Amino acid sequence: MALDRIHLPEGISTLGLIFAFLVPGLGFYFRNRIWGKLAVTSCAALSVTFIIWLGFPIANFAFGLLISIHVSGITYYCSPWLSGERLITRIAVAFGLTIALGIFMYAPIRNSIQGHYFAPLRTEKGVVVVHKMPASAAHSKRGDFVAYNLTDFYGGNVHAHGGLTMGKILAVPGDHIEFATNYFSINGIHQPLLPHMPTGGEVTVEEKNWFIWPSLAIIGGHGNVPESTISATMLQMATVPQENFIGKPFTRWFGRRQIL
């Protein structure tokens, strides 16, 4: 197969190529120590920026710039290989590296972090970072803010969109809830009505469920949908199985107080 005749160009080593792929900005360091230190430091700062401002546009910008520096470092390290190639070839190599790093390195790392440890959640009051800890569902109590999976609901002319959302636990298993014209009560304690709450009726929270009034559901309908129909839909969505629990929002995220 003539594999013994395949050699990397002078100035490029297998080990250097591997480290340039694994460490963002390190490819610059192998060619120029000054530019390399600047690139590695910048990549570290961009990584920290991405974590601190998770969910904000600046985090997405930092994430994209991090990948760009990483790709530039690799192509710079491979300059003895690419210097004699046409411009279209160098562009194609850079584009291919961007896709490869995004798919096989950055996307899996980001998905793993957001899938198992913490994730941003956009609410009506802004972005909130949620600490994922499904095992602590049993320790959640009345008044806690929790992140949970809200399931889609189709009923009559009403379609309620679900998804990852956050809400306050108003009642726990065994609590009795009554609705009236100007208030609702939990175990006899009156509270102001929340948007689209029914003005009559009662419900008791069953075992392994919470009562969380949905505030992020988008209610859509065909034609003129009565308020009573919307209230009935919201009431069904308010009963949340504890198995839908995802985690709790951090009170502070890197010193920034989160508005719940």
Short description:
Helices cover 39% and strands 26% of the residues.
Describe the protein's architecture and organization:
The chain has 260 residues and is α+β, with helices and mostly antiparallel strands. The protein has two domains: 6-116, no CATH class; 120-257, Umud Fragment, subunit A (Ribbon). The protein is built from seven helices and 16 strands. It has helices spanning 14-22, 26-31, 33-52, 57-77, 79-82, 87-116, 227-238; strands at residues 118-123, 126-132, 145-150, 153-155, 158-161, 163-168, 176-179, 183-186, 189-192, 201-204, 209-211, 218-221, 239-241, 245-249, 252-253, 256-257. Strands 1-2-14-3-6 form a five-stranded antiparallel β-sheet. A four-stranded antiparallel β-sheet has the order 9-8-7-10, with no helix packed on it. Strand 1 (118-123) and strand 2 (126-132) form a beta hairpin. The longest helix is centred in the middle third of the chain and has 30 residues, at 87-116. The chain is elongated, with a radius of gyration of 26 Å.
